[in-house]
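name: query_chain
kind: protein
chains: 1
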Amino acid sequence: MIDRVSLGLLILRRDLTVIHANRPFLESCKAEATAVIGRPLSDVLPDCDLREIASQVLATGEAKRTTAEMVQTDGTRRRMRVTIAPTPVDEEASLLVAVEDLSVEELLRDEMRASERHFREIIECVSDGLILMEAVGRIRHINLGAERMFGW
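structure:
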């Protein structure tokens, strides 16, 4: 069941040893299960010091979220959103670690910013007056041509 989830998931013992890693997690790390299962979390995600957060989750019983940078076995760096939550497994207090890759989200955000910047540059170069309005009538942007026309 845990392998059907698209997020990378780890299940840890109280001592922060990995007892299960799902397929999406192994694929995101480019690692084999044998390199992860039975190892401490600090060995599996060496660039993400999550011990303090995991200890807080165990102490409070409340999930915590953070971002961290993960280095894959091939040296590729990726920004990840890491959520740690308490979960009972085999009647032992354990932790569920969910890992989401933020690199695609950040790439899309950067492309959106570049597209918006390009759009604004084009609008500013037009000598005609242009006023961009929302459907409710709120002005979103006025180019230099409109400012000259209306004296704003």
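note: The chain has a mean pLDDT of 85.
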